[in-house]
What we know:
The chain is α/β, with parallel strands linked by helices.
Amino acid sequence: MNQITCPLCQSTDMKIVESIKTSDIVEAYLRILSVTTNFQTDQVRYLVCSRCNLGFFDPMATGDKKLYEQLQQFDWYYMSDKPEYSLAKKYLPRSGKVLEVGSGKAAFAEIVGKDRYVGLEFNDEAISRAKSISVTLIKESIESYAARCPNQYSAVVSFQVLEHVSNPAAFVQGCVDSLQVGGHLILAVPNHDGICGLAQNSILDLPPHHVSHWSDKTMHYLAKQYDLEMVAIDFENIADFHVPWAARAIYEQKLRNFFRLNFKLLDISLFSRFLGKVASIIARIIPPDLSAIKGHTVLVCYRKK
Length: 305
């Protein structure tokens, strides 16, 4: 294989876990969500870094404007009250400005307070809507913004964004550079030590939507790499609306083990789809114990030294 470096820690020590045909990804997006996607390559490889444990796809084919316009048609895509908002609130400093990177609808501004909130967002519609309710959103990357406005914020937050970016190292560095000394960096990502790591054929966890996967080990590594103090790490419980998904994933894994089939991020074969339907039926009849499984999101609070 060509020399590939980890996009987070720059290590070249990694393993290839899976190779996926991009035509299979295109088919799955279209069949499951009626969403069209496109790629410049015939396949993507999924790798895991041995140093920082980041899982990532090569190439890191991120989604374009058209993809997100399609996804925004679903009510569940930009939720106004994400579970991680209440977790993050308890780590916000009582005073000082708060920067949100990847604001979406800027729903977090209501929790922070519009007077101390600034958001970075590329969606023109979201920026226009925010302006109409006196919320400040700026169309700029965190890397560029941090270079212009370093050490300005008592807190920088980012919810479900890091897994979408092709250069996570520069993204996190920009967040850290925007913070004052002693300020808090709050990051929430899908937790691959929880249900996200168990679920198969979770197409939104594949390119061009998600291009990296984050584990507890990787979140701890961020503290070391950026000289941060980890203040807290919180795990979301399985949300009510994720229970059917989690239950199916558990039984699907059991069925695949029974038939001696390896876990795959994507398997669109007829037999795999049949097993998925059987797993859903069993899960409805005999709900599994989900108490030991972590939910969708992990939220970490760091302090800048």
